[in-house]
Each structure stands twice: as structure tokens, then as C-alpha cells.
């Protein structure tokens, strides 16, 4: 009698146990996944992302997001009144898993001027939450939703005029991981492109107001990653070590432009196309629509600085859509040799010859006969070789390429400048009070061309009018 009772209770306990232990994959619909316990969501500012969900069970996830309207720097000397989710552009990264019940608290700071709301593309419901979250300054709105579909989703403000709220920076990403989480990687980063429209032209100083007409015409003054020019360059570059796997959560807030996302010198091993389940492999450039996202994964095999761009390339070099991934570690000459040789190629000649010495090169060129000619030839050389990085007026690109215009570094030491053009330059330098830590490759120019191009640079844009001669260049060359 006693044993049967024991047996029965054991069976009962076992069935109860297995019932509670029911595997989540057995739920046909994500909405049936039970949530156990409550948890405050970790929110992070770009380029960082919260801890992966890993094997954690679905939970009631409490998200507290504060809207802040605040002035920030678009680029050197240019300020902008950003409207933000969580104080940054893009807004705080939200990381959830399928089956989570998200209790969203949208807080509009009392110092703000305007009402806002949030439309999350991860939400199944009217307006993606916009209708329930419209909140005036000094108020908090609460609504809740269940994450049904795994993927990487954009969220944004959807208060009229919608385009204006987005253009001012009101967008971010929410990730819904599948059960068990995404496969682990070594490094994860959060990057989001956006286009900005200012009353003044690109670079015009001061606090720049939003320009509605330019936005309607989609004529962006700035196209940037993470809200400003240089958010991911120089000291702000994202980093990895040789051999590590990297996952980029890349979004595009728009409001107007589609991004052709590319990393110079890398091939994406895997791309979650449009942030969904479809995986494409071996991709060079992935298209990220306005209001869309992608997860991009690759292993870094060699050291160096890899440049992130919108491959609509003027946006990268002239409007700011340029970031950097700095990879440290051992070189692998099998994968990438670096420059081995520079030979002369003569299609009609008897095969490959050696590079001639500088003297031979000089002899075959017509040297400049006057200062005016030096300036003319120098300008040509500048527009062919230096312009891409240092820009047309020598103004450079903040945090990436130092200015040659009015450069204290340039003016302080002509032999050093000659050396830089001859041999290239790496390592930290300070130009006009700003630090740069990047790479300028050796410029393949003859002694005459170096003399001309530097004479042009020294006699333009407020520099100290040094005239650089071929002899000066040769002296530096020999002194090496
Ligand atoms: Cu808004």
C-alpha cells in the first residue's frame, strides 16, 4: 500500500517535472512560449551591444528608454540639435529573444520641447507601438508586446512630421535572437547609417538647423555612421585581433538614402540579408534599405585598418560615411603579401625592367622652369594623388585625414614633410591640436613631383610659403 502510494507520487512528480521542463522548441507558435521571471533589459550606446541572450529562457523584459533632445557635434565646428532615444544616435541597442514579453517604458524628459513616440519594426501591432506610445514631455508611456519573429529590426520615432523626427536622429536597432541565441563570435558592434540635412552646406560652422526642403529633395549634407562624422574613426575606431570573428549589426535609419555597406579589404563571410533568416555567403557589399538592417559576419585574417563605407563613395569621402576597423596581430604573407616590388611595365619593351633610380626618372621628365610652373605641376600632382585623402582645399577629413591647410605640423618642419611624402607615415601625430593615428602610404612620386606638390601645398591655404626644391627632396632621401 505504502509503496504504491510512493510510486504514484513519484510518477506524479515526474510528469509534473517533464511538463515544466517542456522544451521551448515544442511550442509551434512563439506567442505560446511562457515567460518565467522578470528582468531589466541592458541597453547600450553605439557601437556597443548588450550581452548575448545565450541559452536564457524567455522573460518579461523591462525596457526603460528615455528620449532626450540635445545639442551634439556633427563634425568639427558644426553643431546640431539631435533628438535621441537614450541620448545617442543611433538610440540604445535593445537585445531580446523570441518569446520575450517586452514591457516598454517610453520616457519623454521634462526638458524636451516635443511629443514623440516609437515604432518598432519588431512589434506585431498597430503602428509597431506608435499608437500606444505617443508621449508628451514630462510623461512616461508603458505598453507591452511579445517578440514573435527573430531578426534585427529598426525602431524609430513616428510622430509627425515623421521624416523630420527620423532626420534628427530618432532611430535605433532592436535584436530578437532565436531560441538558444545567435552563434557566438569574438566581437560584436552596433553601427547605423543616417543622412542629415542642414541649412548651411557641409562644413558650415555653428549650430545648424534642420532643412526640410533638402530633406524632401534627399540632398543630404552629411551621411554618417553613428550620428556624426568620425564616430568610428581614429581613437573611436572599432577593433579586433587577427583570427577573431566579428559580427556587425548594421542598420540604416535613413530617412532618405539606401546604404551600400562595404568594408574595404574584407569580404563578408556571412550576411543575414535584410536582418532576417536568409544567409548569403561571400558578399562584398550589402544593401541596407532605409528602415532596414543586416547582420554582417567575417573573420579577420590580417592586421591593418579596414575602412567601413557606404560605397556610394562620395558619401564616404565627402559627407562622412566612413568608419574604421583596426585589426592588430601577426601578418600572414600567404594571405596578403604587402608590396613586393614595383617594376616598370612596358608593353612594347623586352619584358619587365627594374624601377629606374630617381635620377633616371628626373632625366626623363620636364622639370618646372619657374615658380608658376612648379605651382601648376604641383596642383596637378595634388589633385591626382593627395586630394582623395586631404581633400580639395587641404581641409582633410576630421579624425581620419589631417588637414594640410594651415597645418602647424606641416609648417613646423619642411624636411619632415618631405620625408612623409617619400616614405609614408604611421603613428600618432597632432595637427592643429587634433590627434590623428592612421596610415599614409608612401607616395610614388619622383623627386621633382614631390618638390612641386609640396611647393603647391606650402603656397596654398594659409601655409608658410616655403618653396621646396628638388635638391631639398634629394637631401632628405639620402639622409634616410
Ligand atoms: Cu520624435
Automatic annotation (TrEMBL):
Task: Report the protein name in the record.
Answer: Copper-containing nitrite reductase
Q: Which UniProt keywords apply?
A: Copper, Heme, Iron, Metal-binding, Oxidoreductase, Repeat, Signal
Tell me which Gene3D superfamilies the record gives. Cupredoxins - blue copper proteins, Cytochrome c-like domain
Q: Which GO terms describe its molecular function?
A: nitrite reductase (NO-forming) activity
Q: What is its EC number?
A: 1.7.2.1
Q: Which NCBIfam families match?
A: Cu_nitrite_red
Which cofactor does this sequence's record say it needs? Cu(+); Cu(2+)
The gene coding this protein: nirK
> Which Pfam family name is an example for this entry?
Cu-oxidase_3
SUPFAM superfamilies listed in its UniProt record? Cupredoxins, Cytochrome c
